[in-house]
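ok here's Putative high affinity nitrate transporter:
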Amino acid sequence: GGATFAIMTSLYQSLRARGLSQHIAWRASFAIVPAPVLIFVAVLTLIYGTDHPAGKWSERHNIPATEIANEQDHEDHNDSDEKLDEKKVHDTSVTVHPVQKIAAIDVAVNERLTLKAAFKILASPLTWLPALAYLTTFGVELAIDSQMSNVLFGLYSKTTPGFTQTTAGYYTSIFGFLNLVTRPPGGFVGDLLYRSFGTRGKKVWTLFCGLIMGAALIARGFYIEDHHTSTKSPSLATIMGVFSLAAIFSEFGNGANFA
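and the structure:
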């Protein structure tokens, strides 16, 4: 996120100052910062993470969704190649209370993957909706993170003394740091809307966030185009204000997508 982006740019400048080439310094920055962090998180996930929301992978069928699906004559395929040790598996009773509305996603159960099942999954809008929402929220963040520092550096390096690539990286890292305070509320609002309006409420909230984000990004582009000349740069405060607005609603939408 933002911390990694800011640290990597600072480290890159430090390595360049020590005499490393651009190619080597950038590759070393990847090895020194992101790689150890990813390995550390992977180890924590391996130690403390669960195989499945129900706990152990062998107990993945002991969830209310399975009971509901069975009542609806849904096929429940247990993996035949898994031999469960009866001494290690505890009997699990599941009490299902009748409800008036159940979303299709709430009764999803584990099934053996076949070509027929794969086609059914790919043909379902429920598969593509969260994927496309993720693409247009977090995907936008990744696209901006990869290019925003270059844009800022190109705009202000010649007109603002001391505006280096590192400075541009610090400004760009705002997008990532905002995740700490914007993504959770986006998911919280999505959950609140779901209680009253179901999945439609979450979809409308996600689309609303996407529209605000898109409008802000388009406005920023027009502003830069209209105010950038060879001798004058657009207001950095205005650009960062619109940039932050787009970031906030991008991450609101991303949080809603996870909700």
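+1. Confidence is low (pLDDT under 50) at residues 79-92.
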